[in-house]
Fold this protein.
Amino acid sequence: MEQKRILVVDDEQDLCDILLYNLRAAGYQAEAAYSADEAWATIVNCKSSNSKCFDLLLLDVMMPGLSGFELARRLKGDETTAATPIIFLTAKDTEEDMLHGFGLGADDYVKKPFSVREVMARVKAVLSRSESIPTDIPKTLQYEGLAIDLSHKSVTLDGEAVALTKTEFELLTLLLSHRGKVFSRQEILDSVWPQDVIVTDRTVDVNVTRMRKKIGRYGQMIVSRQGFGYVFEL
């Protein structure tokens, strides 16, 4: 099996060295860039030489020069790199920062300080999810005035942005992309939450309730089937 290529982008060299060591020990082909500007130059060079670019970026936010958020915006705005998964590793830990990161298209958001073990688990989960996504999946899912932009991980309601958490976004995507199909709580847990995270059925209910409130009139279309699970019902 071909090694997955991962780029670690952080201005803390010691942190990069630790991540590189563990990623390589796990069988990944990993390299580092010590600024977002350096990372962008590396990616541009990769594209111009038609060589294989990266399968995943581990990206800090606060760096001299170009910020991690701005680099993510550039990557998601370029059709050749828009599908590249991004995990933010950052000390910017407010809910607003996290929502901004997911709004830019991040696949995960890990707050510093973190354990290397946690990062490795999230890397595995994100790469696994990216491999399982069909290449012919539409870039936008839409039902009437409710639209999901899969490339930029954003949701709009009648053209207005809806601020969903990563979990709420993935819940909505799962249900809207399989309208009429009933998903058990266990199926939802397996599809949305990382395998190494222990959560209960009640966690699903809480996240569905919050997400329903955020999507206005379409919330009533996410129906609970007693004893079975949830369905986006037409």
Remarks:
- The two ends are 42 Å apart (CA to CA).
- The mean pLDDT is 86.
- The CA atoms of residues 185 and 229 lie 5 Å apart.
